[in-house]
Specification:
Length: 613
């Protein structure tokens, strides 16, 4: 999803801006651009479709950017195709005001009409360009006032950064719905849509909240309300990001690095949270709540998108089986448009790696409006969901750079298991069960290492199966969401192949018609309560000459009779098997994508952080 960067200070703006754009690359984008106010009063703007290095090459051919104030953007197309004209920064008629924007201006059509009527001429198909012209229509030399006046007419979501030749030396920023952070340096300020862009520059930040705007100059800043222009005092926060954390750590791709980080991530997610001898879990983020309110909760609705949604489904099974709480799981984009039945005993649990997924945020807000207790499982500290929920649990998975989510899933499942014990132990769950789950959680990192050690076998499998066009992934109970996840990952990073995830029992209601010798199936068939049922499904596929790749529990030799290929996982509690069974599926998708020569970190058309509907 789009990324914003801004700089005002003592150094050349283009240096930070370029570095920041590179750090924001992981969010997914299709074009990039930069505007710098030069020292001689002129202004440079370079935009290009494609990767940041193409922008960099183009910049070398243009007049050198000498200024100390600038804004930049990576765009992921929403209004209008990826093209130079549609790339940010956008400008007004006189090329005096330049703007970068994340989000969507919902009333842009009507604004466009009235601006065109009064003589403004647009060049792009974007909603952002409208903002530049709207600011122009209010501009009389004071950029801050013009932005304030403009925003009163705007419906929708935005994070913006604006500069003007006629009011130089400053950047005006504003936020509603999309994230924006200001980094505080020494004689310089930075702007970014995501704190990771600031790594190496500063660890002191101010998170802008909705309906706030800021005027940032090289030696001062001022934050005020976009509703009444009153000044607002903001606290500084310290961010804790390490440059090495966002580099590839010896792997060719972030995706592989993140898959192999799984054991460490799980360790970090459970660290300090287990009281073994009592079979209890300590979750500081939930202790801020009145515990009676938490005990009174009689229903949980989990909302999440993509991979986080599959984690939610696994959580549903855990919470119902072990904590005895009814749970529903819903994707954000559906929930937000339903009329959900919610009361004060309902808890809404938003799961999100980025904490910025627009559909998840909107659902959360809707449930809060109806009186639900709002909880979050979020990886990105200080993100919108983290701030909008009454209480929550951080994943501590570290920054996830690859667009396709892997290590965040591991951590989400672990946190859901911790939550199950936390809530379960205040209900029916015995100390023995609590202890059994927490003891097993502690063993997971070692068991995950064992599965990761099969990487060479999985690489060979990817080669062997790369000639097929379709894949079916089947699983039951805790491993049904894993089947969905395996198929999603293959679709995301090896998109030449079509894949579907299905519940084993549903195969006979449709997908079985597709099975023949050209249709391989992945079976997640760990030795558990539904193993015999999975065996019957394998028989059905074999009878139709379908190829079978099975993920099975070590010691199961029988499975070799029916499966063409087997990947073994060690034994663990049934509820925790997804953490082990998802690993080979993640690796398989990654190696398959590499086999096809794809950039598996940034698959085409996808965005890391989907901050629009
Ligand atoms: C995008 C990403 C997925 C991710 C989903 C939800 O689609 O490409 O990898 O699972 O968003 O993101 P979230 O940040 O809310 O977990």
């Amino acid at each position: 999803m789009c990324g914003i960067a801004g700089y005002v200070g003592k150094n050349k703006a283009n240096e930070f801006l370029l570095n920041a754009l590179k750090k924001l690359e992981y969010r997914g984008y299709d074009s990039a651009g930069m505007t710098v106010l030069n020292e001689d009063g002129s202004l440079s703007c370079v935009r290009s479709v494609g990767k940041i290095n193409e922008l960099e090459e183009k910049m070398k051919k243009e007049k050198e950017m000498t200024g100390f104030v600038g804004i930049a953007h990576t765009r992921w197309a929403t209004h209008g195709c990826p093209s130079e004209k549609n790339t940010h920064p956008h400008h007004d008629c006189k090329k005096n005001i330049f703007i970068v924007h994340n989000g969507i201006i919902e009333n842009y059509k009507s604004l466009k009409k009235s601006l065109e009527k009064s003589g403004h001429q647009m060049e792009s198909e974007t909603d952002t360009e409208i903002l530049a012209h709207l600011i122009e229509s209010h501009f009389d030399g004071n950029l801050q006032q013009a932005v304030f006046d403009c925003l009163r007419h705007v419906d929708g979501a935005y994070a913006i950064a604006v500069v003007s030749k006629s009011d130089p030396g400053k950047i005006i920023v504003a936020k509603k719905g999309s994230p924006l952070v200001i980094g505080i340096g020494d004689g310089e300020y930075f702007v970014a849509s995501d704190a990771s862009a600031l790594v190496g520059y500063t660890d002191r930040v101010i998170y802008l909240d909705d309906n706030e705007m800021g005027v940032i100059e090289k030696d001062k800043y001022k934050i005020s309300s976009t509703t009444n222009n009153n000044q607002i005092h903001k606290e500084h926060c310290k961010i804790d990001l390490d440059v090495s954390e966002i580099q590839k750590g010896g792997h060719d791709y972030f995706l592989l690095k993140e898959i192999f980080e799984g054991p460490e991530v799980v360790q970090n997610s459970i660290r300090g949270r287990i009281i073994s001898e009592k079979g209890l879990v300590k979750l500081g983020g939930l202790e801020v709540l009145d515990q009676k309110r938490l005990r009174d909760i009689n229903r949980i609705i989990i909302i999440a998108c993509g991979t986080a949604n599959y984690a939610g489904m696994i959580g549903e099974y855990m919470l119902e089986e072990y904590a005895g709480i009814p749970v529903e799981v819903e994707i954000g984009s559906e929930f937000r448009y339903r009329k959900p039945v919610i009361d004060s005993k309902t808890a809404i649990l938003a799961i999100s790696q980025s904490g910025e997924t627009a559909d998840t945020i909107a659902s959360l807000q809707e449930a809060k409006r109806k009186g639900a207790l709002s909880l979050g499982i979020v990886n990105t500290v200080g993100s919108t969901i983290a701030r909008e929920t009454e209480a929550g649990i951080y994943n501590h998975a570290g920054p996830e750079i690859s667009v396709a989510s892997t290590k965040a899933l591991m951590s989400q499942i672990v946190v859901l298991a911790l939550l199950t014990v936390y809530l379960g132990r205040t209900r029916e769950m015995s100390m023995i069960t609590g202890k059994r789950i927490t003891d097993e959680l502690k063993k997971l990192p070692k068991l995950m290492e064992q599965v990761l050690d099969t990487k060479e076998d999985i690489k060979k499998l990817a080669k062997k199966y790369s000639k097929y066009n379709n894949f079916l992934y089947l699983g039951r109970k805790y491993n049904y969401p894993v089947a969905n996840e395996g198929a999603l990952k293959l679709k995301e990073v090896a998109y030449k192949i079509h894949a579907e995830g299905y519940a084993g029992g549903e195969m006979k209601h449709g997908p079985i018609a597709m099975i023949d010798e050209d249709f391989p199936c992945f079976f997640i068939a760990s030795t558990d309560s539904v193993y015999d049922k999975m065996w019957s499904n394998m028989e059905e596929v074999k009878a139709r000459k379908g190829k079978i790749i099975a993920v099975a529990t070590e010691g199961n030799e029988d499975i070799k009779e029916i499966a063409d290929d087997v990947i073994y996982i060690p034994k663990t509690l049934e509820m925790l098997t997804p953490i082990l069974t998802a690993i080979p599926l993640h690796l398989f998708a990654a190696y398959m994508g590499i086999e096809f020569g794809f950039d598996i970190d940034k698959p085409r058309n996808l965005a890391k952080s989907v901050t629009v509907e």
